[in-house]
């Protein structure tokens, strides 16, 4: 790991997350539930005994969320000791501190689903290729891999991509399919991360965003002849082994 990345990850809460989002708590995680369910949980296995691994789990907020849904075998790993300690202080179980590449290389376990939420963009192209090959290796046949990354086609993606000094690259629907299909995955689908309606304010945002997407698709069709595209800041890729 580069020296600057180690320094940043060692202080990821103190000098980054806290400045952006404030103090994390279980109450805040509960407030994210509608979005977490919509974006990720609908892709998880139906079997609540499934083994699920969240790589680059941060403080474990998603691990805690799915544990509350009944996935008792959900676990997370992150290189940032500060984030893992924060998660453990909130009572979140099955959190491990360590390098995810080393962890995957040495893993003898098999998983039904692996999550990489806001993680893959922190690695170089060579590292990402190795990580995805290792993820494919430790997934059971028919297992699911879910990743969220900055969307290079997103209208406001620059605030995400350039908002973290450790980011290496952004992705698009095309490059997600390309890298996944070449590292042992199939049945690749991509999804936007727009507003999720669960109240008055979010519903208004949802309607306005839909209108904005329509305009973006119109102008893209004018230039290229095709309106296809995902325009949110982040993009989610889901693949099967």
Could you explain the architecture of this structure?
The protein has helices at 3-10, 12-21, 26-31, 33-39, 61-68, 81-89, 100-106, 125-138, 157-161, 173-181, 200-224; strands at residues 52-55, 74-78, 95-97, 111-117, 139-150, 186-192, 234-240. By secondary structure, it is an alpha/beta fold. It has one domain (3-194, 231-240): 3-Layer(aba) Sandwich (Rossmann fold). A seven-stranded mixed β-sheet has the order 3-2-1-4-5-7-6, sandwiched between helices. Helix 7 runs parallel beside helix 8 (125-138). The longest helix has 25 residues, at 200-224. The protein is globular and about 50 Å long. The mean pLDDT is 95. InterPro entries: CFA/CMAS, SAM-dependent_MTases_sf. This is Class I SAM-dependent methyltransferase.
Average pLDDT rating: 95
**Would you report the number of β strands?**
7
Helical content, roughly? 40-55%
For the report, how would you describe the main beta sheet? Answer: 7 strands, mixed
Spatial arrangement of strands, main beta sheet: 3-2-1-4-5-7-6
How many domains make up the coordinates? 1
Helical/strand content category: alpha/beta
The Rg value, from CA coordinates, equals 18 Å
The coarse silhouette is globular
């Amino acid at each position: 790991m580069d020296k600057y990345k180690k320094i940043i990850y060692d202080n990821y809460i103190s000098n980054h997350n806290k400045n952006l989002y404030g103090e994390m708590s279980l109450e805040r995680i509960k407030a994210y539930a509608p979005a977490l369910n919509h974006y990720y949980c609908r892709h998880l296995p139906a079997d609540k005994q499934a083994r699920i691994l969240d790589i680059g789990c941060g403080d474990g907020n998603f691990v805690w969320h799915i544990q509350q849904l009944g996935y008792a075998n959900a676990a997370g790993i992150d290189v940032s000791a500060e984030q893992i300690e924060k998660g453990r202080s909130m009572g979140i179980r099955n959190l491990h501190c360590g390098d995810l590449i080393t962890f995957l290389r040495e893993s003898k376990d098999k998983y039904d689903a692996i999550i990489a939420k806001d993680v893959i963009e922190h690695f170089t192209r060579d590292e990402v290729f190795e990580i995805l090959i290792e993820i494919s290796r430790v997934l059971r046949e028919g297992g699911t891999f879910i990743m969220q990354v900055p969307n290079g086609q997103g209208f406001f993606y620059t605030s995400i991509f350039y908002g973290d000094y450790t980011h290496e690259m952004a992705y698009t629907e095309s490059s997600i399919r390309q890298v996944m299909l070449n590292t042992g995955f199939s049945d690749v689908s991509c999804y936007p991360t727009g507003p999720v309606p669960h109240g008055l304010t979010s519903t208004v945002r949802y309607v306005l965003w839909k209108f904005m997407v329509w305009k973006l698709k119109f102008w893209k069709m004018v230039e290229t002849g095709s309106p296809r595209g995902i325009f949110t800041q982040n993009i989610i890729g889901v693949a099967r082994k």
